[in-house]
Design goal:
Layout: H1 9-18, E1 22-27, E2 33-36, H2 51-73, H3 80-93, H4 95-99, H5 102-108, H6 112-119, E3 124-127, E4 130-133, H7 135-149
Antiparallel strand pairs: 1-2, 3-4
Length: 150
């Protein structure tokens, strides 16, 4: 297995454009405690961090997602933009959901138009027990779709 892709500076900037950096823990639209640039591992109400810690967590989190995306795509043709867009999706929905997504399935079948359209299916979150469309997620998914196709 020859893993080869890494997220680009443009990919990192793209993801950060959809993430707010909060140095105090908050609950996201799905009620998940989050801090920094979308960091969720072990975060509890009342947690705080420094900007340096937030940036470090982001680099660790995105490296883990990029590794997962590479595992799913290393053996099929993948452009840098496709890779970066898939990293953005994986960062936002988590590795398990990403691996089970139509984005991965269609990408692996070398059907980029279908893979791009599959990004749009991930525009919902559980809010108060209900699965609802979240306008911010739809905006992000549309941007990821365009980035993937660029």
């Amino acid at each position: 297995m020859n893993l080869s892709h890494q997220i680009s500076p443009a990919g990192i900037a793209f993801i950060k454009s959809f993430e707010n950096c909060s140095l105090t823990a908050y609950q996201d639209s799905a009620g998940i405690w989050t801090i920094g640039w979308g960091h969720i591992l072990g975060v509890r109400q009342g947690d705080t961090c420094t900007q340096e810690q937030a940036d470090q967590w982001f680099l660790q989190d995105i490296a883990a997602k990029a590794k997962q995306v590479d595992l799913e795509s290393f053996d099929v043709p993948t452009t840098q933009n496709q890779f970066d867009a898939m990293c953005s999706l994986a960062f936002n929905i988590g590795s398990a959901a990403f691996c089970a997504s139509g984005v991965v399935a269609w990408h692996r079948l070398n059907r980029p138009a279908k893979a791009a359209d599959a990004f749009l299916l991930w525009d919902k979150a559980h809010v108060k027990g209900q699965l609802v469309e979240v306008p911010g997620l739809l905006k992000r998914r549309e941007a990821e779709r365009e980035f993937y196709l660029a």
